[in-house]
Design brief:
By secondary structure, this protein is mainly α. It has one domain (about 1-58). The chain is built from 3 helices and no strands. The mean pLDDT is about 85.
């Protein structure tokens, strides 16, 4: 059976929408490495529509 890993962008005050608008100024190598370690071992990703459309465009 596979594992489920959740990676959620959530600010300390509870903001969850449009993470690109508030987390990108803080993106660094440490965050990139963390995201790589979460996503690379995955066999599949479950994405919301907006996130999927962004991935599909890439």
């Amino acid at each position: 059976m596979g594992k489920i890993a959740a990676s959620i962008y959530l600010s300390l005050d509870g903001v969850m929408e449009e993470p690109g608008a508030w987390h990108m100024p803080y993106w660094d190598d440490e965050m990139a490495n963390f995201q790589r370690d979460v996503f690379y071992p995955s066999d599949a990703l479950l994405l919301g529509r907006v996130t999927y459309e962004g991935f599909a465009a890439a």
